[in-house]
Design goal:
The complex is a heterodimer of chains A (152) and B (137).
Chain A (H helix, E strand, L loop, with lengths): L1 H28 L7 E3 L2 E3 L4 E9 L2 H10 L5 E11 L5 E4 L11 E4 L4 H32 L7
Antiparallel strand pairs in A: 1-2, 3-4, 5-6
Chain B lengths: L7 H25 L9 E4 L1 H7 L30 E4 L14 H34 L2
Antiparallel strand pairs in B: 1-2
The chains are: A alpha+beta (152), B mainly alpha (137).
């Protein structure tokens, strides 16, 4: 059913954007976390995380069928391929009394930029809203199709 | 024999509705991938193909109806117009290689929905006319 594919594409995007929001929330929550991971007897700060999105490729059977019938799109929605860590260096903050300060008095803070996270958050929210609109449009079309031939 | 239920009008409406459904799916897919790096948008060609088949272009005409498949076809058309899916692979909208313009997609979504509603209404009208013909009231 074709409209159902539209539903699935929108639903997969809602899931992906929600995951983006979760990751952004985690980044903002851990913006000051100097003890993210314990590596070789030393605390590493939390590393900023990012979601990698990629289109869902159809399976071979689905692709073959859509090619044979000459309809259907190449992809069906989006998925979060993986979550990667930002490899940029940590922020150094001078705070000699901090328990995690090094011998020069600097504390290694996460490479999270709150401004960047806020911008990403707005982007994720707007994309989510766009997908809700697309989903509602599919739903309205589905409801309309049920009205075919009904007594008025 | 008079073809009441399977007339050309019904077939055209059915083709149009099915193209609108396919377009809805493709637009939903484009919107879903608005943040995907390297994604290229697709679109459905139907109205343009139908217009060229209906004779807006010189020489192109609807195919004549044949009662046997071995009869010589007249007209340029090859029967039913089917929606065609094209991917726009050569443009860029963002730095990440994605070419989905969200404003355009939302506008196309609204347009497609209105067109779909109009076609359903047309189909309903046709069915209610048939009903009047059958029931005589």
């Amino acid at each position: 059913m074709r409209l159902n594919d539209g539903f699935e594409a929108s639903a997969s995007a809602l899931t992906a954007q929600r995951l983006r929001m979760d990751v952004i929330a985690s980044n903002i929550a851990n913006a000051e976390t100097s003890r993210g991971r314990y590596v070789n007897g030393r605390w590493e700060p939390y590393a900023r995380k990012m979601v990698v999105l990629e289109p869902v490729r159809k399976t071979f059977t689905e692709l073959l069928e859509s090619k044979l019938s000459g309809r259907g799109s190449r992809t069906a929605g989006v998925k979060a391929a993986r979550i990667v860590e930002d490899s940029s260096p940590p922020r150094l903050v001078y705070n000699p009394t901090h328990p995690d300060a090094d011998e020069n008095g600097y504390v290694r803070m996460p490479n999270v930029d709150i401004l960047k996270e806020m911008v990403d958050m707005i982007s994720a929210t707007r994309s989510y809203e766009a997908n809700v609109t697309a989903l509602n449009a599919s739903k309205a079309m589905f409801t309309k199709a049920l009205e075919i031939g009904r007594h008025s | 024999m008079m073809n009441v239920l399977g007339g050309s009008e019904m077939a055209l409406l059915r083709g149009g509705i099915s193209a609108a459904e396919l377009r809805q799916q493709v637009i939903a897919d484009n919107i879903a991938n608005v943040d995907t790096p390297g994604f290229k948008r697709s679109e459905v060609l139907f109205e343009e193909l139908l217009a060229s088949r209906l004779g807006n272009q010189a020489g192109a005409k609807l195919e004549l109806k044949r009662t046997h498949e071995k009869h010589i076809p007249a007209g340029k058309g090859k029967g039913v117009v089917r929606p065609q899916l094209v991917t726009d692979a050569n443009t860029m909208m963002n730095n990440n290689g994605n070419n989905v313009d969200i404003d355009r997609e939302m506008a196309l979504l609204a347009k497609n929905q209105l067109r779909y509603n109009a076609m359903i209404q047309q189909l309903n009208h046709k069915i209610s006319m048939l009903r009047i013909g059958i029931e005589g009231r």
